[in-house]
Amino acid sequence: MVECADFTLRRGDFTAVLGPNGGGKTTLLRGLLGVLKPTRGQVQRADALTFGYVPQREDIDPVWPVSAMEVTLMGAYRRARWRMGLPLPPIEHERASACLTRVGADAFRRKLFAELSGGQKQRVLMARALMTQPDVLVLDEPASGFDLAAQRDLLELLCRMHDAEGLTILVVSHHFAGLQPLVNRVSWVHSGRVETGLPDAMLSPAKIQEVFSQ
Amino acid sequence: MIQTLCEILSPDFLLHNGVVASLLVGFACPLVGMFFVLRRAVLLGVALPQVSSAGVAMAFWLHALGIHVLGHDETERGTALVGSAVFTMLALVVLALSERRGGGLIEGRTGAIYAFAAALAVLFTARNPSGESHVTSLLKGEIVAVADADLRLLATVYVVVVLLVAVFRRQLVLVSFDRSMAETLMRRPWGWDLLLYGVFGLTISIGVMIVGPLTLFGFLVLPVLAVRPWARGLFSLAIMSSLLGGVTAWVGFTIAYRADLPVGPTDVALSFGLYVLSLAAHAAVRR
User: Fold this and answer.
1) Higher pLDDT, A114 or A7
2) Which of A32, A66, A86, A116 has the highest number of chain B CBs within 10 A, making it the mutation to test binding with B?
3) Is the model more confident about B94 or about A181?
4) Residue B180 at interface with chain A, using a CB cutoff of 8 Å
5) What is the pTM of this model?
6) ipTM (interface pTM)
7) Cα gap B251→B255, rounded to integer Å
8) Which of A86, B71, B241, B250 is the right S-S partner for B30, CB 3.0 to 4.6 Å?
């Protein structure tokens, strides 16, 4: 439960929502995405705002024999909802290829999703989110289980997408190493509250100690 | 053997209706069973045919007692169909509601419903004044003795089921594959769950009536399990498992006909053999 969630997401921001496990980050995220309705207060979104959601990799069951390309094409399902049983048009396949290339996942497009490494899966899920042509890219614990090198690669990729393409990015994580130079806003979710500020202040050793000592 | 394989496909073959019913079930059921396997709900694939059987047994019992839910000119088969459909849909509604409320184990709830349905089927059969053996044979399903009307009903319903799966495959896949993504992209993802459950209910309530719970479960799950290790995408899984189901139904019918064996258990035994063979071959290839 998040009691006091005064949180604003601005166009063009690269925001990190951080906090200890069980602090309410996912609840806040689900509220922003419109999956959970707030028990009090309201969530206001710009008209026709689209979120490109990248779930935690562990949420995807490896029993599904789907290729990386098929997973990416799922991002087009909303646009294709009136095509009923017809195949997706060629332009969607071209878009999917472009999205896979953008995240550096083009080489394994034909491989089964279940056979990919953690980092490769993350890139494919990002490509799928980009296929929705989102206004905001939302990533839930994207670096969970990664070693330092893989974390750095992922952050560099996100940074490139933010700086070069102007994409608004929201990362929800309990990892905060390496984030400081990349993000321009940080929100801590802890003890049922949300605190937002600039990275220098919010990622200072004193602030981190304050959050984790509660 | 080759001659018999060709002979049973002839329209003049004595058991032609049985062959067509087997092929329909063989081709169509894996397309629905795919969702049982991929949603890790195989237990539901065992439980629902059993629930449907309990509905059939209750309907026969009511019919034998002279209680006619569809009016006085209802047939025994018509009553059974209503019983099968009502019980299956009721079980699906209970399971869907309990899933939405969360809490507890889905496997536990499904297992409990299976046990209760199995017990009900036995109890209704034991109390049936028409005779236990008659009802038991109806419950087992008689593929070789499918009447024209039953075959038409099976064909109509299974064509509708296949069309629903084909037309709405993207939505059904998305709600099953990644719930959280579906919730962000779809207005009412539970509506697609409802459609999928409706497809399960239709497939099972009609299938149990005509081919019996054992054969139905076999065709829902075993071809999909056999093909899954080899599939390189959802389309290939759907096509290969449907083809394997159809070919198994054809070859199984032929073996049963030549060896004078019951068709349903022969089909299931053959499907299981192919499943084991597929796993062994896949393990060998990977080594």
Assistant:
1) A114
2) A66
3) B94
4) yes
5) 0.86
6) 0.84
7) 6
8) B241
